[in-house]
What we know:
Blueprint: E1 9-12, E2 32-35, E3 40-44, E4 49-52, E5 54-55, E6 62-63, E7 69-71, E8 82-84, E9 95-96, H1 98-102, E10 112-115, E11 120-124, E12 128-131, E13 142-144, E14 147-151, H2 158-167, E15 171-172, H3 178-187, E16 192-198, E17 231-237, E18 243-247, E19 253-258
Parallel strand pairs: 1-2, 7-8, 9-10, 16-19
Antiparallel strand pairs: 2-3, 3-4, 5-6, 10-11, 11-12, 13-14, 14-19, 15-19, 16-17, 17-18
Amino acid sequence: MRFILFIGLAVLSSPIAARADCTNPQGVASQTVYDTSANIVKFCDGVDWHGMKSFWSGNAGAITYAGNVGVGSAAIVPSAALEVGSTAKGFLPPRLTTAQRDAIASPAAGLIVFNLTTGTLNVYAGGWRAFSEPRVCESEYTQFGGHCYKLSASTATQSAAQAACVAAGGYLARVSDLQENTFVAGLLSLSSGFVDGADIATEGMWVYGDGMPVTYFNWRSGEPNNAGSNEDCVQIVKSDARWNDIDCAWDGSYICEKD
């Protein structure tokens, strides 16, 4: 995906570099122009012209500038790398479906996208979290970290548990960090239960029900051991909140999660 930003774009027929500075009427501070001679976009910081160099082949289309950048701002807040000022327009981040968002390789902490699937602004912090109004969960669910969780009223195999969670509008709980792990284990009424994660397709390659890789693990010592060569699902144990690999055909309790 490429983003092209046009900010107050003007065209100059003579090279900008020929000007001693940009403090004249032709080059007011924050003005951005296209230098037809150098074939490059340049901007004025109130003192001189600076080229905004594009590295389309070697740097994935990045436009670089060492300093603070303001769009529609008369004076940039010193602590802001990028400030967008407007009283009539908003800032539009990348818009992705959940599948597209989850396909981002090695997302950086603080990465923000708008999730088209859930209609929420998402931020990455060890796992994807939704920015939203304070979540009000259905009566049988418990809220944690902007998501809703429910302990099953009955037991089931892992595939049946997955299907039941999806039918309820959610998915089998996906544990993404230690805090969520502790919370989920605390919901259990029995000694253990299913959470999402399986290595059925390829031994040792743990993935969620939608095929995306599991990124957080909390295995017990010596686990996963694939005892009997058929332990391909994840069981979380209430007593220590650690994980054990278990036969997917095991009949156990489970926890559903909703965004």
